[in-house]
Specification:
Number of domains: 4
Shape: elongated
Strand content: 5-15%
Oligomer: single chain
Helix content: 55-70%
Largest sheet: 8 strands, mixed
Structural class: alpha/beta
Strand order of the largest sheet: 7-6-5-8-9-11-10-13
CATH class of the largest domain: Alpha Beta
CATH architecture of the largest domain: 3-Layer(aba) Sandwich
């Protein structure tokens, strides 16, 4: 094993670099593909299944399709080169594939299959190559106990590299650069790995040198014979052989993978609410998960290495026993994390608004994530090397001839990956919508305990009522008790998320629901106002300042359009914005696109008066889909498109603020149509708002901005865009609003403090002519980078709402090019605007 010992550190570095590049690709592909196929739970499930499925195929296929005579390091070099090439090709082909996908879009099962085909076309080949890398490199390291431990260390090193890739992509490459630069970095890493691997292959033999007989005992041929060939206890070995089977090992590691990825789905959702659902928080959670896997696999590999002096049968039993107990402790870890998220972390007395530094928040979020998530991930990480040790022990026990241990490694990796696919899809698409996050965690805990039974069953059958069986029984009983006493997350966490300690005393939660994509809470404030909260953030309330904003999103375009007939609403929320359109006599169809099916019925139950029961209106048609995906794939055009999406700092929302999306909106407007977009000033910094506005002006040069205040202070805004230059004839608008059939419109405006049309128009804040100077040099949010989600997440703790509002007003000039009408009407309105009457 001298070659292995000498070169192993180099291999470990190469494998870590490979993990780093793989995570960069994964994050980039997920970001780009979500723009095409949407970010619903179904779409994310398709993406995850494709990525993990490629790893599974690669791990199984390589040992079967490549000869053992090929140099493993040369095979590994070609794999890395292929990953880099296909990673670069994805950047070139993705726009073309997107167009084919949109052109051939179908609904239902055919639509899901088409999404899968798109994801597979982009990710399957490089992920197959990624999955083949560990079986390839394992062929060079012989199957001694020390060699098996090195397989586990390589897996841990690869995972540690993935941690670096995750943080590098999330906090630097995509924050500072874009998906192209990130991909170039990943491909460059693949190229360096390939070149170094080719160089190593030319200098070292195709095998590290240990024989199969040595692999059994790490030393002497006599011991190997005594263990397997000529020992007087051959009959005992034969009996052990009959009992030994790799299938319990594969099943156990598959269950481990299912529990790990299923828990990751649940905990990412819950921790996202707790910490704030920014792109940085998701990077932190993923990194912590990977850190646990890396540490756990490294520790387990050391355990395997410490067993080199034991006999084959003892090593097999020890690996299998450790694998089983790792599932028990993983179950305890699930209980620990569930307790931390539901009963501990939300009540830590932390006011996140006390710091403006993103790095302070990073440290705090990383510490809380490590404290909550790390224990279970350590044991899931340990499971893989232990499964390798148990499987290789069984393979050696059943066949003492030359064997391809690459197949053993590939089979264990494939079983783990298949389990991961089942766990992720089962939890996200079935368990959480069906039984909620609390019961989903209970299922995962029990499944982990059952995985322990599968691994320990051979030993339990022979030891029955011995201390081992008693210990296992007690551990299983403890697992059941922990599952029964697992609490649900508090409703106030769903309502207020990271600000729960600061806001929890201001309301009571009267209803909670968990949907496939989002968790929803209804709260009642102490002053009687009602709120709807989604994933730890207040979405809408019946407070006057919120009601005026929600009505403005609908009434600004409704009042200005001479005869609107069709409307598209982006996001349901409380339904107030969409409900304004029920007041207009000429509107014939209201289409609302909402990603979470549980929201419209809940909002109708608690906001029926405020939203005019728009959900039940016969003119209303609700589409449950990702808004961007719907808009990009529908052929319909609308007189008005009104968008009330989640705040831009929420991961994935920046796709509804990109120039490409705004251009798609323009294509779906009828001539003379209007597009309105809600934009908050709170929880935003200067560069975020400037980027939002600069991007909007870039797509809609004739756009205008309208402001909303809270207690006289700047709070949020409405951007309004149209293709043609905006011309508002006050005389015509006033005459139209005075008609009897518009009486409901005026009543709706008066309900939120707009007692006349001039009151509404007085909220005007500016246009590109004047505000363009304020946004000069701001980055444009494009699909290739979605820079806005990184800017917004970085400035989430800013408290500059009124400061930014006043800065924008300072740039405003008299809008004489927009408003026309009689001298009196025009003079009164312009005087009100320039005098700050709103």
């Amino acid at each position: 094993m001298s070659d292995t010992r000498r070169l192993f550190p180099v291999l470990l570095v190469l494998f870590a670099a490979s993990g780093c590049s793989a995570l960069i690709y994964e994050i980039v592909w997920y970001q780009l593909l979500q723009l095409a196929i949407g970010s619903t739970a179904v779409s994310m499930g398709v993406l995850l299944a494709t990525f993990m499925g490629g790893l599974c195929i690669g791990s199984l296929a390589l040992p079967r399709l490549t000869s053992r005579g090929w140099h493993p390091l040369r095979v590994y070099a070609w794999l890395e080169a292929g990953i880099g090439i296909f990673g670069l090709l994805a950047l070139v082909t993705l726009p073309l594939i997107n167009r084919v996908y949109i052109a051939g879009l179908a609904s239902g099962l055919p639509g899901m299959l088409l999404r899968g085909i798109l994801a597979a076309a982009c990710m399957l080949i490089p992920t197959i190559l990624m999955g083949a890398s560990l079986p390839a490199i394992s062929r060079w390291i012989e199957a001694t106990p020390e060699g098996v431990s090195w397989w586990g260390i390589l897996y841990g090193g690869n995972t540690a590299g993935a941690v670096v890739g995750c943080l590098l992509a999330g906090f630097y490459l995509l924050r500072v650069h874009d998906t192209y630069i990130a991909t170039y970095w990943a491909a460059a890493l693949n190229g360096v790995i390939a070149l170094l691997s080719f160089a190593l292959a030319s200098r070292v033999p195709a095998s590290s040198g240990a024989s199969t007989i040595e692999a059994l005992g790490e030393g002497s041929q006599n011991e190997a014979k005594a263990e397997g060939l000529h020992n007087a206890k051959a009959e005992d070995l034969h009996n052990a052989q009959a009992e030994a089977s790799t299938y319990p090992v594969y099943l156990t590691i598959a269950i481990s993978g299912a529990c790990a990825l299923g828990a990751e789905v649940v905990w990412t959702r819950l921790m996202g609410m707790l910490l704030g659902a920014t792109v940085y928080v998701f990077s932190i959670i993923l990194a912590v998960f990977l850190i646990g896997l890396a540490i756990g696999s490294g520790l387990a590999a050391m355990l395997l290495r410490s067993a080199t002096s034991h006999s084959l049968a003892m090593r097999l039993a020890r690996s299998r026993r450790a694998l089983g107990w790792s599932q028990i402790f993983a179950a305890f870890g699930i209980a620990w994390t569930a307790y931390m998220i539901a009963d501990s972390l939300p009540y830590w007395p932390i006011d996140v608004m006390l710091t403006k530094s993103p790095w302070h928040m990073f440290q705090l979020d990383m510490a809380r994530s490590l404290w909550a998530i790390l224990p279970a991930t350590l044991f899931w990480g340990a499971s893989f090397p232990l499964a390798l040790g148990a499987a290789q022990g069984v393979a050696a026990q059943n066949n003492l001839e030359q064997q391809d241990h690459g197949r053993t490694v590939g089979a264990v990796y494939a079983a783990n990956t298949l389990g991961a696919i089942a766990g992720a899809l089962g939890v996200s698409l079935v368990l959480v919508p069906w039984i909620g996050t609390q019961n989903s965690q209970r299922v995962l805990l029990i499944a982990s305990a059952l995985g322990a039974l599968v691994a320990l069953a051979p030993e339990l059958r022979t030891t029955r009522m011995t201390p081992t069986a008693i210990r296992v029984s007690l551990a299983l009983a403890a697992s059941g008790w922990l599952a029964l006493h697992m609490d649900a997350v508090p409703g106030k966490l769903i309502a207020y998320g990271r600000q729960m300690p600061r806001l929890s005393q201001e309301s009571e939660i009267i209803y909670v629901a968990e949907g496939r994509n989002s968790s929803v809470a209804i709260g009642r404030w102490l002053n009687g106002a009602t709120e709807i909260d989604v994933n730890g953030h207040i979405e809408a309330t019946t407070e006057p300042f919120d009601m005026s904003l929600q009505r403005m999103v609908g009434h600004l375009p409704g009042v200005l359009h001479p005869n609107p007939k069709s409307v598209l609403g982006i996001g349901f929320g409380a339904g107030v914005s969409a409900g304004t359109f029920t007041r207009y006599p000429g509107i014939e169809k209201i289409t609302i696109c909402e990603i979470e099916p549980v929201i419209p019925p809940i909002s109708t139950r608690y906001f029926a008066k405020e939203n005019y029961e728009v959900f039940r209106n016969p003119k209303t048609h609700v589409v449950f889909d990702d808004a961007r995906h719907f808009l990009m794939t529908t052929n319909e055009k609308y007189d008005i498109i009104a968008s009330d999406p989640l705040d831009v700092f929420v991961k994935g929302t920046a796709g509804l603020y990109s120039k490409e999306y705004f251009e798609a909106v323009k294509r779906h407007l009828n001539p003379g149509g209007y597009f309105t977009l809600y934009v908050p000033l709170y929880e935003s910094d200067r560069i975020t708002v400037q980027s939002e506005l600069a991007t909007f002006f870039d797509a809609f040069p004739n756009a205008t901005v309208w402001g909303n205040t809270r207690d006289g202070l700047g709070y949020d805004m409405v951007f309004m865009g149209q293709v043609e230059p905006l011309k508002i004839d006050l005389d015509q608008v006033y005459a139209r609003m005075a008609r009897p059939d518009y009486a409901n419109v005026m009543a709706s405006l008066r309900e939120v403090g707009f007692y006349s049309i001039p009151n509404l128009f007085a909220t005007y804040m500016g246009q590109k002519f004047d505000l363009g100077k304020w946004t000069e040099g701001a980055p444009i949010n494009r699909d290739r980078d979605l820079r806005l989600q990184y800017l917004a997440g970085w400035g989430i703790n800013s408290q500059l709402a009124d400061v930014l509002y006043r800065e924008m007003l300072a740039y405003r000039r008299t809008p004489s090019n927009i408003f026309t009408g009689s001298a009196k009407n025009l003079g009164d309105l312009l005087g009100t605007i320039t005098g700050g009457g709103h």
